[in-house]
UniProtKB/TrEMBL annotation, chain A:
Keyword Hydrolase: no
Keyword flag Manganese: no
Residue ranges of every copy of the Aldehyde oxidase/xanthine dehydrogenase a/b hammerhead domain listed in the record: 24-144
UniProt xrefs under SMART domains: Ald_Xan_dh_C
Recorded superkingdom: Bacteria
Keyword annotations: Molybdenum, Oxidoreductase
Record protein name field: Xanthine dehydrogenase family protein molybdopterin-binding subunit
Pfam families reported for this sequence: Ald_Xan_dh_C, MoCoBD_1, MoCoBD_2
UniProtKB/TrEMBL annotation, chain B:
Protein name: (2Fe-2S)-binding protein
Record bears the keyword Iron: yes
Keywords: 2Fe-2S, Iron, Iron-sulfur, Metal-binding, Oxidoreductase
Superkingdom: Bacteria
Organismal lineage: Bacteria, Pseudomonadati, Pseudomonadota, Alphaproteobacteria, Acetobacterales
Keyword Heme carried by entry: no
Domain 2Fe-2S ferredoxin-type residue range list: 2-78
Record organism: Plastoroseomonas hellenica
Length: 796, 167
């Protein structure tokens, strides 16, 4: 019988393996776990943005029903717990290292933002823990709070950390200021823009959760947690906070309900439940409610910038000068310092041949939740700045905005292309992604649509953004030289079982990306086994040898490459076994999708014949080869990868209300080789939704006293289905030149390219009004003020 | 403590609850039906949607006691005993309408109720408006809308199986 199996390898839209469990309520998320004897924790958090703790009275709370233990900052200090570490060190212009104040797991003597954890209560039930937390009396002495960049840097601002002058974490720069200043002095025209990148709350739908479990017989600790990188959490928590050998700590990140960056970081609650489980002798579970998530998950963005282009008389960019202030929040989250520096300023060449660039970035402590990488991380901020400035420049230079971009594109034959801000792009074709996007979005036909909308009383606008990003993070030696305290390779193990089924162990973590399918497709493609026979194991430090996790669109480019390398080792060993079995020389053995063949003959062995021989080595080259068929590879990327493309947004504005409706959105992205087109489309659509959310709806607001005003989903506007149009997604591929798959990454492009396209469309729709720039989110209230002529007047 | 008796996915249960116990807590913690999720606590996200006597209900804002005597269906109760998926589940898979899967149970339960309550059929725009009680952070909704449009054809008997998504 000739069984035809559908092609499941690279390029096939294989339906996802993981969906069967998710669609039937059989997902295994952290809060779904219940350990025998489990107790529940509630974290008491600061209601003040900034206050001294004069005393904590737990006597009444301790006597409440069901309470097993209450621990405060004094207890964790006395126990010698370390603070939460920071994984990246930036040096200021003058060579001094950044300010790196302690970040205790429970606030000690001082609270620095609303939501700063003050005590952990462990009780029999969650309700009992919460009731007891409410009975704790904390004597606070409120201090002046500085939630904004302006307040924190004001003369006489109260220092948030002892010894941190002016609340400045670092004052960093890149590029040659004198050269750039000279280019500006000699320029034909210059264009400047002040702009804000609004603070966002990632809001993965699954709130963070953690379960700690101490085994008093072995002294081993297990932490189940909502993490994108369990091995990193094990390292940071064991070595820095709990001060345990890593061999005594296991971290499991089971199914995780979205991350978008916010679940990369090591959070206090992870260490607290792990430590507390030993104190009370029972497993301890903590699950955030949504308001806790708002005031304890790392936030994103929050930049204020001034950006300037210098142009020659032909509209060619001569120089870019940028000054940015970045809000770090009250403490340094795990990777916070690298976001506004090496993930931001190094991207400021964008897709353009800007010959010289100078950027300076001041990172500032404020009385707010720590800020760290959120989908795109630094790259959306760079893209927004460039693409808004480009539109403003086009208008002021009187050059068509598409033409101005084309004129400055890095040409397709200029790769590898060295930018003036450290990165070397390996491949790209920006004219082609632009042309394709203009065609799909019917840019040429827009004026007719504008006229048609005008007849209905609507203001219609179109906006474009041409962008690139750096992901596939990252070459270890390079990031090490820039201040990273970690290597950013990935690890993959391919285990071929005796019967030919395959287990893949990977350090990448899937929390929506569909790795269980995509990675299986890689194996299917290379080793010729059906996707159904390939199991992907991730998220458990006891099963997977090591790993660096999933963020920065790195899972395929780095994690997938590690698997490819491990499969090469499997094939190399398999060839030696096949040569023995077929009495041929190793050099004569060819391998293609599951079959070993003696070149030029019909003598073959299937992969399963080799695996049987490897595990039942009766006829086996035992003197020269170990039994078994399992290989592990570490892959350290040679460069970042550089996805890029073009996004076009079309909006209609209601003249009466100012409400912006996004009516069309087209994305044409170059993400390198596409493994599963269905999943790539889904990733881009989701990223675009988050970018549109930033542009039109979302903003995290603190009042002047540091109270978190947008502290729930009733106050913080998440995009809903009717806020979005159908999003058209296409790809145009140039291959990455330095990884074995040619992949670039698709997780972040949507969130990076889309916000400026939307704002450019809004500004375009308001072309008849005196408006040069609109800050995100472009709410109806802001637009109404512009339409009604009161824009800016209130401030004047 | 008071007792509540209810039928969940066709099975009768009696449980002791506190007055403040929420239906979602009863489902997740007492009955260990962890497919129903809690995403926001303020009735905004819909991750907790189940059917109570045939209506979609946010179980995070329903007291367990209010469900006394009710018939409740959760995501675990949708597939047939032989494992055949409900057309809505099948459509979500075919159209890649889920990524992390966390909002999915509530989204599927809301979508089924939306389709059942609109036998005349819904346009894509009406589906978008009908999903106002459910948040998804991963997909951008595009594929969810497509999946629901495909599932309604099967649920209303206009097609015998879920239309294949365009490749």
């Amino acid at each position: 019988m000739n069984v035809v199996t559908p092609f499941e390898g690279i390029g096939a839209s294989v339906r996802r393996k993981e969906d069967f469990r998710f669609l039937q309520g059989k997902g295994n998320y952290t809060d779904d776990l219940n350990r025998p004897g489990q107790t529940h924790a509630w974290i008491l958090r600061s209601p003040h943005a900034h206050a001294k703790i004069r005393g904590v009275d737990i006597a009444a709370a301790k006597a409440m029903p069901g309470v097993h233990g209450i621990f405060t900052g004094a207890d964790t200090e006395a126990a010698g717990l370390g603070g939460l570490p920071c994984g990246w060190q930036i040096h200021s212009k003058d060579g001094t290292p950044m300010a790196e104040p302690p970040h205790p797991v429970l606030a000690f003597e001082r609270v620095r933002h609303v939501g700063d954890p003050v005590a952990i209560v462990v009780a029999e039930t969650r309700s009992q823990a919460r009731d007891a937390a409410e009975a704790i009396i904390v004597d606070y002495e409120p201090l002046p709070a500085a939630p904004s960049l302006e307040q924190a840097q004001a003369a006489g601002a109260t220092p948030i950390h002892e010894g941190v002058a002016g609340n400045i974490c670092y004052d960093w720069h890149i590029g040659d200021k004198a050269v750039v200043d000279a280019a500006f002095a000699a320029a034909h025209r210059t264009v400047a823009l002040d702009l804000v990148n609004n603070r966002l709350v990632p809001n993965a739908m699954e709130p963070r959760a953690a379960v700690g479990e101490f085994d008093r017989f072995t002294g081993d600790y297990t932490l189940y947690t909502t993490s994108q990188n369990p091995h990193v959490i094990r390292l940071l928590m064991a070595a820095n906070v709990l001060k345990l050998p890593e061999s005594k700590v296991r971290v499991v990140a089971p199914d995780v309900g979205g991350g978008f960056g916010s679940k990369i970081y090591h959070y206090a609650e992870e260490a607290l439940v792990t430590w507390a489980s030993a104190q009370v002798g029972r497993p301890v579970k903590w699950t955030a409610d949504r308001t806790e998530a708002f005031m304890s998950d790392a936030h994103g963005r929050d930049h204020i910038s001034r950006a300037e282009f210098a142009f020659d008389k032909d509209g060619r960019i001569l120089a870019l000068r940028v000054a940015t202030q970045a809000n770090m929040g009250a403490y340094l989250s795990t990777f916070a310092p690298c976001v506004p520096t090496y993930l931001y300023a190094t991207l400021l060449a964008g897709v353009y041949t800007t010959p010289v660039i100078y950027a300076e970035v001041k990172a500032v402590f404020t009385n707010t939740v720590p800020v760290d990488a959120y989908r795109g991380a630094g790259r959306p901020e760079a893209t927004y700045l460039l693409e808004r400035l480009m539109d403003v420049a086009a208008r002021e230079l009187g050059i068509d905005r598409v033409e101005l971009r084309r004129r400055n594109f890095i040409p397709a034959d200029a790769f590898p292309y060295q930018t003036p801000v450290a990165l070397q792009y390996d491949s790209g074709d920006y004219q082609s992604t632009l042309n394709e996007c203009l065609r799909v979005a019917d840019w040429a036909g827009f004026e007719a649509r504008r006229a048609e909308a005008a007849a209905r009383g609507k203001l219609r606008g179109i906006g474009i953004s041409t962008y690139l990003e750096a992901c596939g993070i990252a070459p270890s030696a390079v990031v090490g030289s820039l201040g990273a305290r970690a290597g950013l390779y990935e690890v993959g193990t391919i285990r071929v079982h005796p019967t030919g089924s395959i287990t893949v162990l990977t350090g990448s973590h899937s929390h929506g990306q569909g790795h269980e399918t995509t990675f299986a497709q890689l194996v299917s493609d290379k080793l010729g086994v059906p996707v159904a026979q390939v199991d992907i194991v991730h998220g458990d430090t006891a099963k997977v040898p090591f790993g660096m996790g999933t963020y920065g669109s790195r899972s395929l480019a780095v994690g997938g490459s590690a698997m490819m390398k491990a499969m090469d080792k499997i094939i190399a060993k398999g060839k030696r076994i096949a040569a023995h079995l077929m009495e041929a020389s190793v050099e004569d053995i060819e391998f293609d999708r599951g079959t070993f063949r003696v070149a030029g003959t019909d003598r073959t062995k299937a992969l399963v014949d080799i695996s049987v021989a490897a595990y039942v080595p009766h006829n086996y080259p035992i003197e020269e080869l170990e039994p078994g068929l399992e290989e592990t590879a570490f892959y350290d990327p040679k460069n970042f990868t550089y996805p890029g493309g073009c996004h076009i947004a079309e909006v209609e504005i209601d003249r009466e209300t100012g409400k912006v409706d996004l009516v069309n959105f087209t994305a044409v992205d170059d993400v390198g080789r596409v493994i599963n087109p269905m999943i790539v489309e889904g990733q881009v659509q989701g990223g675009v939704a988050q970018g549109v959310g930033q542009a039109l709806l979302e903003s995290c607001i603190y009042d002047a006293d540091g109270q978190l005003v947008s502290g729930s989903m009733m106050d913080y506007t998440m995009p809903r289905a009717d806020d979005l149009p159908p999003v058209g997604v296409a790809t145009h591929t140039t291959l990455c030149t330095h990884n074995p798959l040619g992949v670039k990454g698709c997780g972040e492009v949507g969130a990076i390219g889309s916000p400026p396209a939307v704002i450019n469309a809004v500004v375009d729709a308001l072309r008849d009004f005196d408006v040069r720039h609109i800050e995100m989110p472009a709410t109806a209230a802001k637009i109404w003020q512009i339409i009604n002529g009161s824009h800016g007047k209130a401030a004047a | 403590m008071p007792h509540v008796t209810l039928t969940v996915n066709g099975k009768s249960h009696t449980a002791e609850v506190e007055g403040r116990t929420l239906l979602v807590e009863l489902l997740r913690e007492t009955l260990r039906l962890t497919g129903t999720h809690i995403g926001c606590d303020t009735s905004q996200c819909g991750a907790c949607v189940v059917h109570v006597n045939g209506d979609s209900v946010k179980s995070c804002t329903t007291l367990a006691l209010a469900a006394d005597g009710a018939s409740v269906t959760t995501i675990e109760g949708l597939a047939a005993a032989d494992g055949t998926l409900h057309p809505m589940q099948e459509a979500f898979r075919e159209y890649h309408a889920l990524q992390c899967g966390f909002c999915t149970p509530g989204m599927v339960m809301s979508a089924i109720d939306l389709v059942q309550k609109n036998p005349q059929g819904l346009s894509e725009q009406e589906i978008r408006e009908g999903l106002e009680g459910n948040l998804c952070r991963c997909t951008g909704y595009h594929n969810i809308v497509k999946a629901i449009a495909a599932a309604q054809d099967v649920m209303h008997g206009k097609r015998s199986e879920i239309a294949r998504a365009a490749e």
